[in-house]
Amino acid sequence: MEYINILGRILFGGYFIYSGYHHFRFMKMMVGYSQSKKIPLANIAVPVTGLMLIAGGLSYLLDFHVTLGSLILIAFLLPTSFLMHNFWAIEDPMQKMGENVNFNKNIALIGALILFISVRHLAGAIL
Description:
Helix content is 81%, strand content 0%. The chain has 127 residues and is an all-alpha fold.
């Protein structure tokens, strides 16, 4: 069972680490996209959120302060879902569909993070 736990931590944490890495690798593009979505101080918001993703992902990968990592990821995902993936405000059907998929994915990830927090709490983990 330990191997399954490790695999899950690698896949789940790796997803967020990879996403955070993209914030830095494609910084110029991400800042431009954020500006098009009217995100204030996008040139600061993109690297800060990239660090949030990496920190949260590492918490899962390393099984270190997972509750705190989950809260950091929720703090990223919740506003991002509504500010960046506001499908209800888009008229182009293809773009609307893509944003809808990303919005729903983020909401599902928030649900998973909440579930992980509750499981850790029930198991008696402090952080």
